[in-house]
Design a protein that fits this description.
Strand content: 15-25%
Shape: globular
Strand order of the largest sheet: 1-2-3-6
Order of helices and strands: HHEEEEEHEH
Distance between the termini: 39 Å
Helix content: 40-55%
Number of helices: 4
Number of strands: 6
Largest sheet: 4 strands, mixed
Oligomer: single chain
Length: about 150
């Protein structure tokens, strides 16, 4: 009931950028070219889960068959350490860069360790610098998970 209220009251709020949606559209297109028959949740069709500590976690990109989550960190929103000093104050989030990094580290730990998801974190700047390489690495990771899962199922 609590989550239904939260989802209902925030359903019009976008939790993703146009940049991330376009990137994930391209990734899904590439995955379809490889012939993967998987489900993809992202952008308006996002996936979320409650953690054991009763926090709601939304995933940027999720493949349920592989328990695979991709978090795309925007350089500004997540204060990319290559661009921001640890004492930089993010005005919209009212946090220092270091506090954001600690928050993200905890969040990633909850997703991967407590919830048991395979987590990959990518940075906006890496995509802007070499999108093809980022896509190739993600497909390689997805292929490994796919092969190991379907090898186990036989």
């Amino acid at each position: 009931e609590m989550y239904e209220h939260y989802i209902e009251t925030t359903k019009d709020r976008k939790r993703y950028s146009k940049f991330s949606k376009l990137f994930f559209d391209d990734l899904v297109s590439e995955l379809n070219n490889f012939g993967f028959k998987l489900s993809y949740y992202y952008a308006d069709n996002e996936h979320w889960r409650w953690s054991d500590d009763k926090k709601l976690y939304f995933f940027d990109f999720y493949i349920p068959e592989l328990k695979f989550v991709i978090e795309l960190n925007g350089d500004y929103w997540h204060c990319n350490p290559n661009n921001y000093a640890s004492d930089y104050v993010h005005e919209l989030r009212n946090m220092t860069a270091n506090e954001i990094w600690e928050y993200d580290k905890h969040r990633n730990s909850v997703i991967s360790e407590d919830m048991g998801y395979n987590l990959e974190v990518i940075w906006e700047s890496d995509i802007r610098r070499n999108k093809k390489n980022v896509v190739i690495n993600l497909i390689k990771k997805i292929k490994e998970l796919y092969v190991s899962k379907y090898k186990e199922d036989k």
